[in-house]
Amino acid sequence: MNSETALAPAVESILEAARERAEDSRDRDNVSVDARSFPDAIAQAEADGRVPVIAEVKPTSPTADGTRPDDPVELAEAMVDGGAAAISVLTEPTQFGGSPEALTRIRDAVDVPVLRKDFVLAESGMDIVDADLFLLIARFVDDLEGLVTAARKRGFQPLVEVHDGDELEAALAAGAEIVGINNRDLTRLEVDLETFETVAPQAPADVTLIAESGVSTPADVRRMRAAGADALLVGSAIMDHGAGETDVRENTRRLTRAEDATDSEHQT
Q1: Is residue 32 annotated as a catalytic residue, yes or no?
Q2: Domains of the chain: total
Q3: Residue 95 domain-assigned (yes or no)
Q4: Which of 61, 213, 236, 251 is catalytic?
Q5: pTM for the whole thing?
Q6: Domain that holds residue 236
Q7: Are 21 and 125 spatial neighbours (Cβ–Cβ below 8 Å)?
Q8: Is 266 domain-assigned?
Q9: CB-side neighbour CA atoms (13 Å) of 248
Q10: Is residue 221 part of a domain?
């Protein structure tokens, strides 16, 4: 599915690098994954009184003020200690500083589901590394249904990312059961939490909805949960790029316990 709307230059650069990496991965054998259940992880978090948060390990990003050179395994373990229901790992190397090797190390170290977050455009790009969830961005692929099927054949739980109602419709038609609604547009890279609030009501009740991007405070968490988010994917607010020795565990805990807090306790 492709839109005629112009993409931000950083996104265009990421996609060009993704196309080159896809060419290099065509001869790999298919992976076969025994995935950890993401729905079970959501249920366990809620049973424990935690907001289901997918905490994201990303050394940097086009919208970050700096980098976090910390060991990715130590970051992921701190996030799980802080209550994260799952971990997202960037494997895109050019703009996010990620790697498949970091994902493998993290998945070996934690016991929660791990999402591979990358810009995969073709089936061959799936056969890089084992993960429990696999990101597919609806706007960037032509055969979304085929890729959803291919991901499931490998054992992945596909998470289909959308930005508007048309992309949601395409995701549902492709058989998506886990849908991420990204609050960051791909044209100016600006964030608007109303995106989730607008698109989420169009999804069937049996689809697992994840609010992505722009969640920074406990108030944001409660806002997205009130709008129907089953889980939230949070990166920058936890990693806090360029802020030095920020406590990743405490950043995660502040958001996973957001529904227990008052606004006055956690203003930033």
Answers
A1: no
A2: 1
A3: yes
A4: 213
A5: 0.89
A6: 36-260
A7: yes
A8: no
A9: 29
A10: yes
